[in-house]
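New to this. Look over this protein:
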Amino acid sequence: MEKILKVENIKKVFKVSGGLLKKDYSSVYAVKGANFEVDEGKTYGIVGESGSGKTTLARIILRLEKTDEGKITFLGKDFLSLKGKELKEARKNMQVVFQDPASSLDPKMTIGETVSEPLLIHKVGTKSQRKEKVIELLRTVGLDESFYSKFPYELSGGQKQRVGISRAIALNPKLIICDEPVSALDISIQAQILNLLKDLQESLKISYIFIAHSLDVVDYISDDVAVMLLGSFVETGSKESIFNNPLHPYTKLLIKSAPIADPRAKREKIEVEEEISSIPISGCPFYSRCSIRKEICSKEDAKLKEVEKNHFVACHSI
């Protein structure tokens, strides 16, 4: 199976100022050595709580943020080294669906103008051909021709996200990065958008990087999953191995914390130590909350190790 994207040892450190004169700086790892691959026509899910570095990693892959270290290979080319026309051409094949469907649309532009913008930028077709293409795209995502002349304020949240998706598929990309695309939507609408994304993947052979903090969503749409905590991947593998046999204490915590639809059902008690108070530069990012921690966990990063086929865990106690 062809590898659409390969991410190798991506690292990003932010300097945080403090003190009375804002001259004291500390280093915070937003992404700490991320490694993964995305197969053609498959979905790679990245799950973790808020602040874990998921969006920063996505922005680096999209080249909206510079990386301090690492390599990204996209469609066989060193994506980080591309410039000018080569970069513009490569970006046709890498698009994004944003978290907030409202803020991702220009309120002064009609839906037709918004969806046709990538076609215009890349000089695809004539004006009439672009209009015809946009109407086709809107129908593909479940919106009729009347939406072409509407403005974002006239649409519901789910309709706005459908517009965002139609814009993302306008150039027939190979990869779409979905940054929590359903978290701002009602539950019933979430299901509709997820089913739409799956249908589009099957018909257009698109690969996804799907970022979320909801385990149910990631379980439903992903083929492979990475669990991210404070910039680090602590467990990776197929969704079956992650959800049927979670091994890292943080993964277990996320799964046990997920709500259950049945109000009569009871969860196993979650054993968690103190809340995290700082982001460590070295050592396990889950150290301060882990009930099975060892002394080495506070000093040395645990590397991802294969515990079963294609199932990797970063934990000194496993």
